[in-house]
Amino acid sequence: MKLHLIAGHGHGDPGTNGYGHTEADTVRLLCSKIKAFGGDKVVYHDPSHDYYAEDLFRTLVIPPEDCVLECHCDGNTNPSTKGGHVIIWHEYEPDNYDIALGN
Predict the structure, then answer these.
(1) What angle do CA 44, 48, 50 make, to 5 degrees?
(2) pTM for this structure?
(3) Are 22 and 13 in contact (CB under 8 A)?
(4) What is the pLDDT of residues 21-39, one digit of tens each?
(5) SS (H, E, C) the chain
(6) How far is it, in rounded angstroms, from Cα 68 to Cα 56?
(7) Could you give the CA distance from residue 79 to residue 77 in angstroms, rounded to a whole number?
(8) Alpha-carbon Rg of the chain, whole angstroms?
(9) Cα–Cα distance between 79 and 30 in angstroms, integer?
(10) For residue range 53-67, what is the model confidence (pLDDT) as tens digits?
(11) Cβ(43)–Cβ(5) under 8 Å?
């Protein structure tokens, strides 16, 4: 099993921004760190793209036993903002990985 990482935004869409950082840059840094820790168990898909805007999700070939994580940041304009959330497509049930990530 492998983890497939998609960095949210990019391709001209910075996402949210604050404190001199953009969401696109932040999630690319996060994905790079995850890839460094995970090695060949992690597939970091081309971060120069916005997979929604370019409709690239249709072109991905991901084996059914693999996991996909699309990374985004919640708004970072308030220094007291903490935490995050996990969104799961309505046709899927959360598995143990989703639940652990949410916790």
Answers:
(1) 95
(2) 0.81
(3) no
(4) 888 898 999 999 999 999 9
(5) CCEEEEECCECCECCCEECCEEHHHHHHHHHHHHHHHHHHHEEECCCCCCCCCCCCHHHCCCCCCCEEEEECCCCCCCCCCCCCCCCCCCCCCCCHHHHHHHC
(6) 14
(7) 7
(8) 14
(9) 19
(10) 888 888 999 999 999
(11) yes
Burial class of 51 by CB neighbour count within 10 A (0 to 12, 13 to 18, 19+): buried
Long-range contacts of 78-83 (CB under 8 A, 24+ apart): 78/18, 79/19
- Amino acid in the structure at residue 87: I
Q: Which residue in 56, 37, 55 sits closest to 45, CA to CA?
A: 56
For residue 81, CA distances in Å to 19, 78, 103 come to 13, 6, 17
Q: Look-up: residue for tokens 């304009």?
A: 77
Neighbours of 22 (CB within 10 A): 18
d(CA 54, CA 26): 20
